[in-house]
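Reopening this one. Same input as before:
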Amino acid sequence: MATSLGEFGGFAVPSVVGAAAFALGFPDVALLFVMVPAGAAEGDARNQILRCLGVMYQNGALFGSMTLLQNVRLPLEEFTDLPDDAIDAVAASKLKLVSLEGFEGYLPSQISGGMKKRAAIARAMALDPDILLLDEPSAGLDPITSSELDDLILQLSRTLGVTFVVVTHELPSIFKIAGRVIMLGKMPQGIIAAGTPAELRDHSEVEFVRQFFHRGNVRSAVQVQAS
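Same output, byte for byte:
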C-alpha cells in the first residue's frame, strides 16, 4: 500500500498471526525496507536503511542503567560523528518533543509506563527517520494514557511529517488515528482486507474482519472519542 508521507493508514491482524497494525503513511523507502531487509544489506546500504527507520519496541526496550538522555543518545553515537554537546542537544530536543523535558536525568525505573513509551519514541526519532515503527505502543497502558499517546502520535505525524507504522490490537487507536487499514490473516496468509476503519467495520465481506471490528462496543468508543 503506497500513500503520501504523513498520511494515516493501518493494518489489522488476528492475535494468532501477530498484531493489528496501521501505517501512518507508507513512502517508497518503506517498500524498499520490506524488499531488502536491513539484515540482508551490508555496509553503507544497511546503515542507510537503518537511518530511514526508527523503531519503538513493545515494552520500550530502554536500557535500565542509562538515563533517558543516555538512551536517546545511543543512535546518535552509533550513526553520527556529532560532538558530545551536539548529541546532548539533539537528544534533549527529542525528549522535549514527547513532553519529557526535565526528565533527561531520570532512569527508566523512575518513570511511569506511559513515560517509558514516550522516551522510546524519542529514541526512535533520534536520527530523524522518515518512518517510525511502533510495536504495540498502547500495550500495558490504561485507557486514558493510551489515548494521550495516540494524541502524541497524531501530533508528531502532523507537525514533523513523519510516517508512522503502528502495530496494535487496540480498536480505539485504530479509529482515532488510522486513515487506512490493512488487515492480515493467517488463513490465507497475507492481506485479507484493506480500507478505512469505517469501511472495514461496515462493509467488509470477510467474516473475520467484521468480527474483529465489531468486538466490544466499538461504535460507542468511537462516538465518545469524537464527542
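So the earlier flakiness isn't reproducible anymore. For the record, Strands lie at 11-12, 21-24, 53-56, 131-135, 163-167, 181-185, 190-195.
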